[in-house]
Design a protein that fits this description.
By secondary structure, the protein is mainly alpha-helical. Helix content is 75%, strand content 11%.
Length: 114
């Protein structure tokens, strides 16, 4: 394998590594949001009130407990879908990275010395 080809593979590996890191960071953020939603849903289950307050931008508004529960569940479902999509993208990036690492470390693909 020529030196220029190796450099291209190294560059591609760096891109896939950065993508995998970005996906992991996005997934972490979404997982934190998911935890917050799950906590809120748990609190709704234990609350005896039919009307509760929720944050809507910079204000609090009174809302029906069931409406808020549905809204939170929809957000949770959306986050789950997003996390699954990011998982797939992260997996593909890691697979591509491994393929490139194999090409770079394979003895038959190394440039000949001298």
């Amino acid at each position: 394998m020529a030196s220029q080809q190796m450099q291209q593979l190294v560059n591609q590996a760096q891109v896939y590594q950065q993508q995998a890191q970005l996906y992991a960071a996005q997934k972490e953020t979404l997982n934190m949001q998911m935890l917050e939603i799950e906590k809120a849903l748990k609190e709704l289950e234990t609350s005896p009130e039919d009307k509760i307050y929720k944050i809507a931008g910079p204000i609090l508004i009174k809302a029906g407990k069931e409406d808020v529960r549905k809204e939170l569940q929809e957000k949770k479902d959306f986050l789950l879908l997003k996390i699954q999509t990011i998982d797939k993208s992260e997996k593909k990036a890691k697979e591509k990275l491994e393929e490139i690492k194999q090409k770079l470390t394979s003895p038959k693909d190394r440039p000949e010395a001298g």
